[in-house]
From TrEMBL:
UniProt-recorded Gene Ontology molecular function terms: peptidyl-prolyl cis-trans isomerase activity
Isomerase is among the record's keywords: yes
Gene3D superfamilies, per the entry: Cyclophilin-like
Protein name: Peptidyl-prolyl cis-trans isomerase
Length: 172
């Protein structure tokens, strides 16, 4: 019996390509959710709308006018899966409500242990890691260096938009 490989996606951004491995065994709900958006070409033309140089880059939900795209239902937070918010991992973005993640994700550009699950209360529940960059971390590092400012009531927005042109499943 061969071990089933984790799915891999290719994220094409306006600054280069990033290859990402999805941890379907550790984060099945988050991976299924993310892949449903990928299959629908939902991410095409969205932007990295929040870039904080020594923290993370976030995208997957807003267009260039900072308008949110319509999402599917929120999913269960899988932050208890044992995966850590280490540099190069992807986690589901959410509001202060534990089970509120939809389409948005972020890529940790440094180790962010304070985002890991550390308790049952909303402020300690953590952010569910579901994937990891396996190629193109140099592209992520280039994105984290872009100049940011305020736009449409949001902070840390790249002055020149950084687009997610597409995210597609890579066929093995």
């Amino acid at each position: 019996m061969t071990e089933e490989k984790n799915p891999v996606v290719l994220m094409e951004t306006s600054m280069g390509n990033v290859k990402i491995e999805l941890f379907k065994d550790k984060a099945p709900i988050s991976v299924r959710n993310f892949l449903s958006y990928v299959k629908d070409a939902y991410y095409d033309g969205t932007i990295f709308h929040r870039v904080i140089k020594n923290f993370m880059v976030q995208g997957g939900g807003l267009d260039t006018d900072m308008q949110p795209k319509k999402t599917k239902f929120a999913i269960k937070n899988e932050a208890t899966n044992g995966l850590k918010n280490l540099r190069g991992t992807l986690a589901m973005a959410r509001t202060s409500v534990v089970d509120s993640a939809t389409s948005q994700f972020f890529i940790n550009v440094v180790d962010n242990a304070f985002l890991d699950h550390s308790g049952k209360t909303p402020d300690r529940f953590g952010y569910a890691v579901f994937a990891q960059v396996i190629e193109g971390m140099d592209v992520v590092d280039a994105i984290r260096e872009v100049k940011t400012g305020n736009k449409a009531g949001h902070q840390d927005v790249p002055v020149e938009p950084v687009f997610i042109n597409s995210i597609r499943l890579v066929e093995e």
